[in-house]
Amino acid sequence: MEREKLKTRLGFILLSAGCAIGVGNVWKSPYMVGQYGGGAFVLFYIFFLIIFGVPILTMEFSIGRAAAKSPIKMYQQIEKPGQKCHFHGIMCMIGNYMLMIFYTTVAGWMLYYIYASIS
After folding, report:
1. How many helices and strands (H and E) does the chain possess?
2. Domain that holds residue 80
3. How far apart are CA 118 and CA 112, in angstroms?
């Protein structure tokens, strides 16, 4: 079975941004931090997100694109004998499932609030 691919670069960028940013980062976290006097934390958070997050994200995309496999199989492919790189692939999959559970719950809340506001 052939693996699915994104049709446009814009679709890839929007998908990546939606996954990376998350609802909490955009709405709740900066608001709460600023409200309780920790606004400088947001500046440090953004700084370290750019310094550490962008290179790691670029590495993940590069390896994933070259391997054209799931994270677990991707790390197994690049792993040398005796190394434990596949552990990172397992953690990636666990993180994906945790995000899916979180966003499913948020989507349920949104549907409930839409129903409540209409009725």
Report:
1. 6, 0
2. 25-118
3. 10
